[in-house]
């Protein structure tokens, strides 16, 4: 994805010595694509300090989001996705004077559509899915932004299943 967006390829991959990064297929993929693979010494996370601290920060954010929302731990992936979505639209010292989203796409991100993770949300129920006296909305919990759609992901309260809620024009870039 990054290569397609920027026209620049990955030259070096620095990873820990975990099994997921030392599989023969993975090593072959890196070799075929001309990517240099640098490994840390086994069981020395301090050699990968920046990444380890970043991972800890993300886990702490996920824990805080789940705690504040009152949602079950099984929604950790949605909280993680929302955290990454927000981080890419927030200023950082890694790219001074802009957000990671801005650095990659060359435009300021739209943030008008942002909501609090786990907050109450309501979606309109179309006519063909209800009867005359049925309620015209569904009660939901906001779980974050859909990855490839201009839509939000919600959890239907009473049914405990996911729902992709309609596209909002305010989410589109100005």
Characterization of this structure:
There is one protein chain. With 174 residues, this protein is an alpha+beta fold. The protein has one domain (44-171). Helix content is 30%, strand content 18%. It contains five helices and six strands. It has helices at 2-6, 24-32, 49-69, 76-87, 100-105, and strands at residues 12-15, 36-39, 120-124, 137-145, 152-156, 161-165. The strands form two sheets. The protein has a four-stranded antiparallel beta sheet with strand order 3-4-5-6. Strand 1, helix 2 (24-32) and strand 2 form a beta-alpha-beta unit. Helix 3 (49-69) crosses helix 4 (76-87). The longest helix is centred in the middle third of the chain and has 21 residues, at 49-69. It is elongated. The two termini are 23 Å apart. Residues 167-174 have low confidence and may be disordered.
> Roughly how many Å apart are the termini?
23 Å
Helical proportion, percent range? 25-40%
Round the mean pLDDT to the nearest integer and report it. Answer: 84
The rough form would be described as elongated
Order of SSEs: HEHEHHHEEEE
How many E-type strands?
A: 6
Rg for CA atoms: 20 Å
Please summarize the sheet with the most strands: 4 strands, antiparallel
Q: What structural class should be given to the helix and strand makeup? A: alpha+beta
Largest beta sheet: what is the strand line-up?
3-4-5-6
Q: What is the number of independent domains?
A: 1
What is the count of DSSP helices, taking H or I runs of 4+ residues?
A: 5
Low-confidence stretches: 167-174
Strand content: 15-25%
């Amino acid at each position: 994805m990054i290569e397609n967006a920027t026209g620049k390829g990955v030259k070096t991959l620095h990873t820990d010595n975990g099994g997921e990064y030392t599989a023969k297929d993975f090593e072959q993929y890196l070799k075929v694509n001309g990517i240099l693979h640098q490994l840390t010494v086994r069981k020395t996370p301090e050699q990968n300090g920046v990444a380890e601290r970043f991972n800890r920060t993300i886990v702490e954010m996920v824990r805080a989001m789940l705690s504040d929302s009152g949602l079950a731990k099984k929604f950790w992936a949605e909280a993680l996705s929302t955290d990454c979505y927000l981080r890419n639209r927030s200023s950082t010292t890694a790219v001074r004077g802009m957000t990671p989203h801005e650095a990659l796409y060359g435009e300021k991100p739209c943030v008008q559509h942002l909501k609090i993770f786990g907050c109450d949300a309501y979606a309109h129920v179309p006519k063909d899915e209800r009867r005359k006296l049925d309620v015209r909305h569904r009660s939901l919990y906001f779980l974050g932004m859909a990855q490839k759609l201009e839509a939000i992901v919600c959890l239907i309260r009473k049914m405990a299943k996911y729902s992709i809620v309609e596209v909002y024009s305010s989410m589109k870039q100005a």
